[in-house]
Amino acid sequence: MLDLVLPTECGGCAAPGTRWCEACATALRVGADEPLLITPRVDPGVPVFALGRHAGARRTAVVAMKEHGRRDLRAPLSTALADGIDRLLCWGVLELPLTVVPAPTRWLSARRRGGDPVTLLARAAVGAAPGVVVVPALRTAARVRDSVGLSAGARERNLSGRIRLIRRPPPEEVLLVDDIVTTGATAAESVRVLAAAGVQVVAVLTLAYA
């Protein structure tokens, strides 16, 4: 009866009868050569890695989680993020102990979405992993505009001086994580703010790149 009123469908491809199908799980699986090293238009000054393109099941799942309240999709997305962190540790890009800092989300967006999706994903990905902690250290100013539709230059101007450090991370290596990197403006300003406070950001990791 519940499926008749609220039909269950896959958060990646809309296949009926399941919330996350095997095909979409396969599409989100971290391959042997992933995360990918990418070059965003705005250089944050540290390596930027992404788990895949912002397309297909990955894009649909991220949008459904953020904009349509599909909280059940945090599990597969956070699993992919956790695998990406593990891979960077195996490659020697990261070392333990490690602090994961979520990229900041606009306060109004976080409130509308029932919480900051990046922080929630980071916490689910890290779980109780030894030597890894999540510290929500950054916040955007209230006057920051939604970045959708803005050019790379406009995104930089929109964020310049408008990301603040609200909590100092431990004196360990820091990995900045985000859901999507588009131009790199958010990552660049976040890294700049952390570096100005003496925090060593060694890399950026995102679920997707556009």
Q: What's the CATH architecture name?
A: 3-Layer(aba) Sandwich
Average pLDDT taken over every residue: 88
Quick one: overall form? Answer: globular
- Give the domain tally: 1
Q: What proportion of the residues is helical, as a percent range?
A: 25-40%
Sequence stretches where pLDDT stays below 50 over 5 or more residues = 1-5
Structural class: alpha/beta
Report the portion of residues in β strands. Answer: 15-25%
Q: What fold name stands as the CATH topology?
A: Rossmann fold
What order do the helices and strands follow? HHEEHHEHHEEHEEHE
Q: Over the alpha carbons, how many angstroms does the gyration radius reach?
A: 17 Å
Structure description:
- This protein has 8 helices and 8 strands.
- The chain has helices at 2-5, 22-28, 56-67, 74-91, 107-112, 117-126, 152-159, 185-196; strands at residues 36-38, 48-50, 98-102, 132-134, 138-140, 163-165, 173-181, 201-209.
- The strands form 2 sheets. Strands 1-2-8-7-3-4 form a 6-stranded mixed beta sheet, with helices on both faces. A two-stranded antiparallel sheet has the order 5-6.
- It is globular and about 50 Å long.
- α4 crosses α6 (117-126).
- It is α/β, with parallel strands linked by helices and 210 residues long.
- The chain has a single domain, classed as Rossmann fold, CATH 3.40.50.
- Helices cover 37% and strands 18% of the residues.
